[in-house]
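stage 2 :: seqdesign
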């Protein structure tokens, strides 16, 4: 009896899912076709390189301080050694804080990305949402973000439709 109920439940769920309309988009493809997104990415890449270069320079200074300390260590008193060690530790801490300020979870690069890229992503999302509502789709998958999509029929790819809705060809 349990087995029959389970089979009937599976068939009911299966038939219900079968009646749903599904489609997919490739957001990576869509975003690459939007010039303002490309410009934003280039700006973010330049900013990231600039921040990374500054961090590397500061770490090189810390490394030089440490090497100088190692060279002069035999000539220093215990008090001077302690003072130099504290300076090196403090400088390294400052560099790590700067690194977090630039690249951390709420860092400057993240905020700049939010400022430049999020509005574009929101436009894409809204266009996808409109297509889903108008087309009666229950689900629209993102082929770029879902590596477990083994096969996709190009007939159900709505990426070009999203680009057209956004005003790009």
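stage 2 :: out
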């Amino acid at each position: 009896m349990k087995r029959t109920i389970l089979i009937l439940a599976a068939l009911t769920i299966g038939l219900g899912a079968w009646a749903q309309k599904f489609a997919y988009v490739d957001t990576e493809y869509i975003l690459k076709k939007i010039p303002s997104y490309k410009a934003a990415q280039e700006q973010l890449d330049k900013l990231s390189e600039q921040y990374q270069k500054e961090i590397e320079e500061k770490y090189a200074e810390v490394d030089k301080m440490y090497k100088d300390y190692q060279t002069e260590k035999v000539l220093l008193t215990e008090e001077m050694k302690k003072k130099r060690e504290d300076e090196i530790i403090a400088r390294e801490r400052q560099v790590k804080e700067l690194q977090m300020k630039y690249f951390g979870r709420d860092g400057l690069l993240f905020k700049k990305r939010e400022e430049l890229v999020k509005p574009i992503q929101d436009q894409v999302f809204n266009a996808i949402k409109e297509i889903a509502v108008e087309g009666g789709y229950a689900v629209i998958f993102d082929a770029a973000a879902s590596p477990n999509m083994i096969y996709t029929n190009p007939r159900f790819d709505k990426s070009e439709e999203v680009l057209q809705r956004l005003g790009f060809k």
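stage 3 :: structure notes
- The helical segments are 2-18, 27-32, 35-72, 78-103, 108-116, 118-135, 159-166.
- The chain has one domain: 21-166.
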